[in-house]
Amino acid sequence: MYPTDLVMPMKAELTDKGFSDLATPAQVEDALKQSGTTLLVINSVCGCAAGAARPGVVYSLTGDKKPDHLTTVFAGYDKEAVDAARKHLAPFPPSSPCVALFKDGELVHMLERHHIEGNPAGAIAANLQAAYDEYC
């Protein structure tokens, strides 16, 4: 597990932008069963999270359409919450970072690590904005 002083600034990059930090399995279950659209970011300490995922996700929210609910869990820190979240991401294998969009509790769009790694934040944002246009 990563130390708190390392993780908190990375969490803050999303929570300071309105994301709910889901630290327990119960919080994950409650968040993902909400009506409307819910964005779930499985955050991470890796370079692609810092360089593409977090900035791309934040930038994706500047368009006209956006999810009703913004949520995040942190891999390597909120273990039980991440495990609970990953149960909702089947058939996708565990990866972090990753970004999932749910509509009325159903997974409708997924960006796995291999979609994030090596891509600029703008490409991540554009991918998510296209999903928002379709589902939000």
From TrEMBL:
What Gene3D superfamilies does this protein map onto? Glutaredoxin
Q: Which family does it belong to?
A: Belongs to the bacilliredoxin family.
Protein's name according to its UniProt entry: BrxA/BrxB family bacilliredoxin
- What organism does the UniProt record list as the source? Chryseobacterium luquanense
